[in-house]
Amino acid sequence: DADGTLPLHMAAAACGIPVVQNIIFQMNKLKPSSKNASRTDKRGQQALHYAAAEGNMEVMLHLVNQHKVEVDCLDSHDISPLHILSMSGHVDCILPWIQQHAAKPQLEDKDGMSALHHAAHAGHAGCIAPLISMGCAVNKPLPTSTSLVPGATPLHLAACGGHVDCVKVLIEHGANVDQRDSQGWSPLLYADFMKNRSCVVAMLQPENAEVCAAQLKNLASLMLSDHGETLERVVKVVEYAATIPEFYEAINRLVQSDPEALAGCMSFLLRNSSLLSYQSKVSWLRREINRTTTKGLIFHWGRIDCKLLIDRSRIVESSIGALIGQSEESCRSRHFEVNFLGEEGTGTGPQREYFAVASKKFVCEDYGLFGLSSGTRVYHPLAGDLSRKLQWKSRNDDAADCVILDYPSGALTAQSGMFAFGRLLGLAIRHQSLVDVKFSRAFLRMIVGGKLELEMLEEIEPDLYRNLCALKGHQDHEAMDLDFTILTDYQRAGDELNEQGKVQASKQKVELMENGENIKVDSTNIEKYVELYILYKLRDGAKKLMDRLLHGFFEVVPKPAIRIFSDQELDLLLCGLPKIDVDDWRRWCRYSGTSQGEQLCETSQLSLWFWEFVCSKEEAERALLLKFCTGSSVSPSVGFENLPGLSSICRFTLACTQEGDDRLPTASTCFNLLKIPDYSSKEILEERFHVALHYGSEGFSFS
What residues form the catalytic site here (predicted)? Predict the structure, then answer.
C-alpha cells in the first residue's frame, strides 16, 4: 500500500506460520532472495515488527529460526521488536524473547527510549518487572538529543501518563522518586501537572516515613531554588498532598520528631501552616518561645525575673499594676512566679489558679472591656475610648460608692487594662497555663491575623445578624431612609455605672465610610452597607483596644509562631484540650435527611462512617471537629443531652444533604447542625472532613 505495507507484514500480524511461509515461498518464486523475510515498509519495519505488535510469538520464532531474521532488527527510528512488545504490553512474550533469543533490553531508539521507557510510557505495568530483571536500567534518563523531555526516566513517563500501576512497580524496583529531568522537575511534579492524583499519592508513599521525609526535603529544595513555574507547581503539589490524611499525618510525624526542620529545609510549611497539625504547631511554638526567652544575667544587678504580687480581693486592678510594671525582658523570662497577697502558696498551683481566675475577672462586664453574648456565651471586646477609667462597684460593701482606682503610675484606663490583659494571655501561653474564658471566633481570628468572616457576627449578636441578612432581601431600601452611619453603644471616659454596677455606655453615631452621613443606602450599595456594619461590630469599633491588647500579647509571645495557628487552635491553646465523651455525643445525636434513598439514622452507612471517623481521631482533632459543629471545643458540662443552642437546649443533629463527593461538610453552629453530603465511600468522607477542618473557608480551591 501507500505506506509500503506488504502482504507478508499483514500476515505476520494476523496469521499463523503456514500463511506466512506460503507468502515467503511465493516471494522467492517471483524474486529469489534470502532477504525477502526481512523486507521493510516505508518506516523501516519488517514482518518481525508487525508480529511483535500483535504478540504473535509463533510467527516471530519462525521468522528468526527459519528465515534468519535479526532478533534486534531496527526500523528507521531504531525501534526493535522488543520495544514493540513492551509498548504493546505483550508480557508473556518479553522473557522468552530475551532469554531464548538474546534480544538486547538495553537497546535505545533515536529518542533514547529503552524497552522499559516504552512500557512505562504506554502504561503496561506487567512488562516492567521482566524488563528490569533482564537488565533494563530503572533510572535511565533520556539524552539531551531526545525529541521528548531530556532527563526523563521511566518513572517520569509513567507519572505523566497517569499509569499508577506502573508507578508503583517502578518504585518497588528502585525507581528514584526524587530524580529530576533537565527542567528540574521530579516525577511527582509531572503527575500533579497532568492532574494524575493517584500517581501523586503513589509517589508520596505516606505509609513509608523515610520516603515521605525524602520527598518533603526534595520539594523543599525545589521551593528554595526556584521562583518560577516550578515553584508554583511545587506549592500546588504540597497543598494537594496535605489533603490526603495519610500524607498529612506523615508530614506531622516528621515535624514533631524534629521541630528544628521547620527552621531549615521544611520552612515552607510555616508559609502553608494549614499543612501542620495542632501538635506540630505547639512543638514549633515551644521551640520559638524557648528561643526568645530572656536567659542568664542580663544586667549587672542580677537575673531578670517576672514576679506578680496579686491582691485576690482586687485581682484585676492589682494585675494591671503588676503586669504593666514589668519590662519586656522580664515578661519573656524563664523565671515566672505568682503570689497572692497574704498567702504562702508558691509554684505552679497559684500560677494556674491566677490565670484561670484573673482571666475570668478581666472579661467581667463590670469593667466594660468585653461583652458577653447571651446565646453562645462567648466574650468579644467592646467599642470605647482608650482613655476611659476602669470603674467598678465594690463587692465587699453594697453601700460603697463608685470607686475610681488610681495607682502611682496614673489612672487605670481601658488602654492599660487591655494592654495588661494582652500580656496576661501571652504569659499564660508562654508558661503553659490555661484561661477560663471562651472568646468569640472573631476575637481569636484577629489575634492570629486571619480574615474575618461576616458570619462571625451571628455568634456575638445573632438577632442583629439575622436582621442585617433580612435587610439585604428587602425590596424597598430607599423607603427605609438609611445612610452609611449607625447608632451604637460606645463607652466614653466619664460614663456612669448603672444600678447593677456595670458601665452604662453612651450612644454614638458612627460613619461606616468617609462622608457616610451623606450616602443613602439603596439596592446598589446595600451589600456594602451590611458588610461595613458587620465589620464595625466585629473589628473596627474595638480596633484601638484590640491594638493595645495585641501590643501587650506580642511582647510576650513571638508573633510569627502564633500566626501559624487557626482561631480554633488558638482557642485550644488558651483554654486547653478537652476530653470529649464520644459515646455521650453519639447517644444524643439526632439524624435528618436521606442517604442512599433511605431516611438517615444511626445505623445508616453514612452515620457509621462518620462516627468511625470521630472515634479514630485524637483529642485535638475531635476538639476541632466539635468546635466546627457547635462553636465550642468543650463537651457540655451537663452532657450532650442538654447541649445549649442559640437560646435553648438544641441537640446535635447530623443531616445528610443531597450533594456529591466534591462538596465539603458544613455546619450551622448556632443550631448544632452538621450537614454532610451523601458521600460514596468512607475514604472520601474522611478526606473531605480533613479539608474542612484544616482549611475551612480560607482553604485552597480543589477541582
Answer: 670
